[in-house]
């Protein structure tokens, strides 16, 4: 939570002008004046302090890398102004967590969490590519960047599918590599079915389901992987 407050909260402050101008986001708390930027920044400062304190209680490598993580999760917010690859930066900001947790527990970084970080980057970054389609026209008008703006809606859809295929492959390899067993692959199969279902909703000539509730199934995917991984380890 502290990690989230140090990065996600400043993101909304950084993008508050775009949020106010974008019909999709203008009802958020900052554009509506429900929250003041100072309030959000204050929460981020407190969260960052808790984050650094927690890191100091773990091990040396965790403490050394804590500033890198804190800076990165703020930096990625600016990539929307710089490059169409901003989706990958967001995906990596979320995907740092598995490797960070591994370092926190073991005091080292091994290949296994790095593979999981790659999988999460492809998963989260891929969805951000397709979510970016919703702001395709706004990005063109406002001058912000996205994959869909640079390469087109059709290319964005197929790129998301490719990234999710890579995520699925990485998770499969991870399960085999770590010998996680039968239950893990049940969770993996559930996740893949849901990913395929979500990707089937959006087509270049039919964006009507872009905001479908099925796009909320990411939480189901993550929980399925978590629960069945725990079962695979414990049983």
From TrEMBL:
GO biological process terms, semicolon-separated: ubiquinone biosynthetic process
Keywords assigned: Membrane, Transferase, Transmembrane, Transmembrane helix
CDD domains noted in UniProt: PT_UbiA_COQ2 (cd13959)
Obligatory cofactor(s): Mg(2+)
Membrane topology, as annotated: Multi-pass membrane protein
InterPro entries per UniProt: Polyprenyltransferase_UbiA-li, Prenyltransferase, UbiA_prenyltransferase, UbiA_sf
Transmembrane segments: 34-55, 61-78, 85-103, 115-134, 155-176, 182-202, 214-233
Similarity remark: Belongs to the UbiA prenyltransferase family.
Protein name per UniProt: 4-hydroxybenzoate octaprenyltransferase
Domain of life of the native organism: Eukaryota
PANTHER family linked to this entry: 4-HYDROXYBENZOATE POLYPRENYLTRANSFERASE, MITOCHONDRIAL (PTHR11048:SF28), PRENYLTRANSFERASES (PTHR11048)
GO CC terms in record: plasma membrane
Lineage: Eukaryota, Metazoa, Porifera, Demospongiae, Heteroscleromorpha
Compartment annotation: Membrane
């Amino acid at each position: 939570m502290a990690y989230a407050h140090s990065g996600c909260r400043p993101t909304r402050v950084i993008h508050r002008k775009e949020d106010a101008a974008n019909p999709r986001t203008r009802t958020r708390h900052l554009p509506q004046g429900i929250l003041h930027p100072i309030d959000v920044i204050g929460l981020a400062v407190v969260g960052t302090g808790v984050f650094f304190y927690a890191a100091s209680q773990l091990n040396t490598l965790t403490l050394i890398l804590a500033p890198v993580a804190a800076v990165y999760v703020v930096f990625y917010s600016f990539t929307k102004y710089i490059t169409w690859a901003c989706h990958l930066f967001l995906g990596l900001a979320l995907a740092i967590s598995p490797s960070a947790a591994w370092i926190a527990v073991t005091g080292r970084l091994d290949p296994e969490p790095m593979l999981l970080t790659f999988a999460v980057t492809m998963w989260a970054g891929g969805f951000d590519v397709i979510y970016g389609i919703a702001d395709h026209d706004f990005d063109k008008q406002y001058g912000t960047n996205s994959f869909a703006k640079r390469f087109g809606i059709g290319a964005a859809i197929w790129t998301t599918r490719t990234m999710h295929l890579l995520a699925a492959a990485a998770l499969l390899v991870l399960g085999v590599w770590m010998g996680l067993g039968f239950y893990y692959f049940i969770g993996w199969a559930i996740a893949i079915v849901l990913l395929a279902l979500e990707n089937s909703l959006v087509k270049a000539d039919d964006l009507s389901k872009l905001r479908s509730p099925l796009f909320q199934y990411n939480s189901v995917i993550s929980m399925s992987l978590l629960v069945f991984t725990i079962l695979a380890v414990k049983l």
